[in-house]
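Quick check before the chapter quiz. The format below is the same one you will see on the exam, so make sure you can read both the input and the output lines.
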Amino acid sequence: MAELGEAGLLEQPHTSAGRVPTDRGYRFYVDAVMDVPRVPADQLRQIEALIQPQELDVAQLLSRAVAALSELTQQAAFAVSPTVKQSTVKQIELVPLAARKILCVLVANEEIIASHVVEVIEPMSRDEAVSLARFLNTELAGLSFSELLESLERRMLAQQDAFYYLLKRSVDILQHALSTEPDERFFLEGASYLVAQPEFSRNPHKTSALLKGLDAEEVLVQRLRQDLRTDGVQVRIGREMQVPGLDECSYLAAPVVLGSNIIGGVGILGPKRMDYPRMRALVEAVGGAVAGLLSRWDVR
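Here is the expected output.
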């Protein structure tokens, strides 16, 4: 015990306490000691059936996956999903609602849909909306929405393009529609499991700090965004997360891969003393089930 303490792997929180692992101690265990169990095939099938949504909808799929993962682990579970901003364009529909109001429906290849009511300067008839949508759907092949917008803006700057008028109207509508779209959507389920852990339920100050950390989700999402750029489950322990208020927590995050692209991720957030081998196995299982369902949708 003394040697482990001197090596920085154990610490004594206060005089009357026993020894507990430090962040470095947990890291050593996760990287060099633990064995990850295999999730049985029948449980994998149960997980896939549990998260299968009624419709081809990524948000609904990830919402069900997060709820299932939280229930399976009895921890807080999360997912990061793409929005149309980061996705390849499949279709754009423009529907006039009034003389100067257009419903702009953006559909991405991963069945991600966003709809926005856009106010336009000049009135637009239904025939004009159909023509403009046809123009956009011809121009957009293989581009992301952000690339499509950049392409239209470059062509418009030339001011000699035969489609200048269509370009200008397209840019105006898409800029308004995409301006309110976030870069990612963040789902969180089961925070009550985390708050109920002894580390927090017995210490109001830690509970308050934890809830503030969860409220400032952009900081956590930014950290997750970095970890989800690589394959495999990423584990962040305590201060490694660099998220204020979550120093007593760890997270495990697995990317969701569609084809050769990482389009999001799922994971859990729990106390540092969690059962890492079991948690990792379940995170991998749910992430794999989400990717499997998405790949079958993509084939269709």
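If your answer matched, good. The radius of gyration is 24 Å.
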